[in-house]
Amino acid sequence: MSHAAGPRPSEFPEDPWDAPSTPDPDRLDLGPLAVAVRRSLNGDHAGEVGTMLPPLVDHHVHLMIVGADALADSAIAGLVDLGAPLDLVAARLHRDGLPRADFAGTFLTARGGYPVGRPWAPAGCARELDPERGDGRSALPSAVETAVSEQQAFGASVVKVALNADVGPVFDRGTLDAIVAAAHGRGMPVVAHVEGDGMTRLAVEAGVDVLAHTPFTEPVDDLLIDRAVAIGQRWISTLFVTGYGTATPDSDRALDNLRRFRDAGGSVLYGTDLGNGDQPLGVNPAELALLAAAGLGAPELIAAITDPWPRPDRAEGIATFVAGPPPATLDELPEWLATACVVPTEDLEAL
Ligand SMILES: [Zn+2]
């Protein structure tokens, strides 16, 4: 991890996130990413004591539904938009300001496949592709290669494929393989929406990098979970939208799948699917509480919500600040973290 650029307070070690923490037996151990800090004496909150964390990232949002500026005044400093028309992507990328945004651009889907025709899906947010029939020897780019390169040209840094067998046709394995190869050839990870029987297996066998949701329509068996972990697949949590606070068959399956994925060593990314149902425009404490219910401890929760994916490095010059003492228990962590704000790193000094 490199944090070499930019000035920083002399009190910090070279990498503030590697600062040694002093365990307090009355407080929850937040792990190595949390640093006890005080705000500088020059600002509006002079001398306020609290905790510094890396910038928070919601790895699954839809600005086309909540609006391009919906998270501008929140504690979320980074977002990954997993499905939007390319004109929205291009417009947002030409503006400065937080959150730092990464985009998948349009959903790639089979002809007539999800989310075509969904009431929430505006025109232009899905691109339908015919099955790939080429033998790989044609000198012309295939439809898949053209689609992926156009997405990248508009500013997408992630490719999203929809594999929803419950509502329509899905890509055959050859076409999905071609999409994964085209994306990887351009340095872009592939994220899949999986829904319906066999879709998790299809995504794992095709080498999809990230699942946009914890699988919620089918129990994922332990062998398949082991394969997903072995290829380094990561799962974006989105547990809250499987039940909106109520236990449902979908939410029970998702929680059980994520618990076993995490137990097997799988890497979890915090994501809310913001735009899907009623959720706070910022940190969703209910999503964090469900991650804790899936077995993630405080250091893992913080790692899941501060992972810079799909970028290799965290944003420079900004940090998360949570005022007051750290939580005493894991149960208190979600509401505590929901009070966070984004501050310039130079406004904080290590205690
Ligand atoms: Zn979504």
Automatic annotation (TrEMBL):
Stated name of the protein: Imidazolonepropionase-like amidohydrolase
Species lineage: Bacteria, Bacillati, Actinomycetota, Actinomycetes, Micrococcales
Location of the region described as Disordered in the Swiss-Prot/TrEMBL record: 1-29
Matching SUPFAM superfamilies: Metallo-dependent hydrolases (SSF51556)
InterPro entries: Metal_Hydrolase, Metallo-dep_Hydrolase
